[in-house]
Specification:
By secondary structure, this protein is of the alpha/beta class. Helices cover 22% and strands 25% of the residues. The chain has a single domain, classed as Spore Coat Polysaccharide Biosynthesis Protein SpsA, Chain A (Alpha-Beta Complex). Strands 3-2-1-6-11-8-12 form a seven-stranded mixed β-sheet, sandwiched between helices. It has a five-stranded mixed β-sheet with strand order 7-13-9-10-14. A two-stranded antiparallel ribbon has the order 4-5.
Length: 263
């Protein structure tokens, strides 16, 4: 099983509401296209986004306190059965807000796995404005976690939905499509690495090596969208992205990520 954790910003903070809807729809579309249905999405945000989330593989969690702020966990649980208490805080900056939501997504994923008696699984972290290669879940399900426990991506595609251009880019860091295999004990106890995905995703590939976790790098499993006005990283139009190599937008690439989902 692959548990996908992702976050979504407060809708009133997006500068382009229509592009927000398009990128989220395309993200969800790339998951619907997976060649294996062995996954569950845990999407954490504030207000309900303007797309349908009424599908059995989507778990929507709101951290809104109803006053423009958030309910944030008071402490991190040590087991899936631990009660989680929350403090009501004001709206944080983008990076802190995403961090709060990522922790909550991982907590909810663990509780869901325990409730469904799923003992071993992968957790894959993604941004909700990017697209996943349609064969990614199937690939992860084929791996032997005794030989590979971590999967990361540095070479990826980048797509500009405003111009319809696509490119390749080799990042010096790991992208947000990083994956770790987890085991949940019968008592619901979390492994020591339980909140691994809540660290800086850019250092994921270096951290798993430092911690001697058997890892594998995969290429072109992620398509990062750019020039949307909504990215937390403020990505520009593709022509201004550094280190990219523009390539023809083929039918195979469109099928790979479901780029038609931007229509």
């Amino acid at each position: 099983m692959v548990l996908i954790v992702s976050t979504f910003g407060a809708t009133d903070r997006y500068p382009d509401g229509e592009m927000m809807r398009k990128t989220l729809n395309a993200f969800l579309g790339s998951l619907r296209r997976q060649t294996s249905g062995a996954f569950q999405l845990f999407l954490v945000g504030h207000d309900l986004p303007p797309v349908s989330l009424a599908e059995p593989w989507i778990s929507w969690i709101s951290i809104s306190n109803g006053n423009g702020g958030s309910f944030v966990h008071r402490r991190l649980p040590e087991a899936a059965t631990d009660p989680v208490s929350f403090d009501s805080v004001g709206m944080a900056g983008k990076i802190t807000d995403m961090g709060h939501k990522t922790y909550r997504a991982v907590i909810e994923a663990g509780k869901w796995a325990h409730a469904n008696e799923i003992r071993d699984f992968w957790i894959l972290r993604m941004d909700s404005d990017d697209l996943l290669w349609k064969g990614m879940v199937e690939l992860l399900m084929s791996l032997d976690p005794g030989k590979v426990r971590a999967v990361y991506n540095r070479t990826c595609h980048m797509y500009d939905p405003r111009t319809g251009e696509i490119a390749e880019k080799r990042h010096p860091w790991s992208t947000t499509a990083n994956v770790l295999h987890y085991f949940l004990s019968g008592g619901g106890l979390f492994e020591p690495e339980w909140f691994y995905h809540c660290r800086d995703h850019t250092t994921f590939w270096q951290t798993v090596r430092k911690d001697r976790i058997k890892s594998r790098e995969v290429d072109h499993t992620l398509c990062i969208t750019t020039n949307t006005g909504n990215s937390i990283s403020g990505r520009p139009e593709l022509a201004k992205e550094e280190g990219v190599r523009k390539i023809p937008l083929t039918r195979e690439l469109a099928e790979r990520y479901g780029l038609d989902g931007f229509a």
